[in-house]
Design a protein that fits this description.
Length: about 170
């Protein structure tokens, strides 16, 4: 992928791409995103989804923790009305685990589709990454148009226009 696009991803999502262009001895992200520019939008939208999910999960968790403090301290009046049943005191509720920040370890084209290795996240993040993999299997790696997997030596996803052209150097 072009350096300009890689830097755009790194600037927008500094935590996820903290290893981008790092030391070759310690991270595969040294090589940047090892795919062509046609998948930039998939990666960018994926990162937006992960970012939004982690932010929302974190806010929900903070709200639940704050609520439980009020319950523990019997500060019933400060709880929202819908949380107070007549004649009953609200109880402490279990709080979901925090979602660890996602850090990409390698992003590349493998067997024709986008393959991403990462640390952190949870099952939701894994599903989002799986979805990005599926979308890449029908998206031209060169230009981002709808494409199909072309076989013969090297499996890759290309649209009709890019298939067979020399527009594969990158
Ligand atoms: Zn194309």
């Amino acid at each position: 992928m072009d350096l300009e696009l890689e830097n755009k991803l790194k600037d927008t999502f500094p935590v996820m791409f903290e290893e981008m262009h790092g030391d070759k001895a310690t991270t595969c992200m040294h090589f940047g995103c090892e795919c062509h520019n046609g998948w930039y939008n998939i990666i960018n939208q994926l990162c937006m989804s992960i970012d939004s999910y982690i932010n929302t999960a974190s806010k929900d968790r903070q709200r639940e923790l704050a609520r439980n403090i009020l319950v523990n301290e019997k500060r019933w009046d400060e709880l929202p009305k819908w949380d107070r049943l007549p004649g009953e005191h609200p109880v402490v509720r279990p709080v979901t685990d925090a979602v660890d920040p996602v850090v990409f370890k390698q992003i590349k084209e493998k067997f024709g589709t986008l393959t991403i290795y990462f640390t952190g996240g949870d099952a939701v993040v894994s599903n989002l990454i799986h979805l990005a993999d599926l979308i890449s299997s029908v998206t031209c790696e060169n230009c981002g148009s709808p494409g199909v997997q072309r076989t013969g030596g090297w499996i890759r996803v290309q649209c009709d226009g890019c298939y067979g052209s020399d527009n594969t150097a990158n």
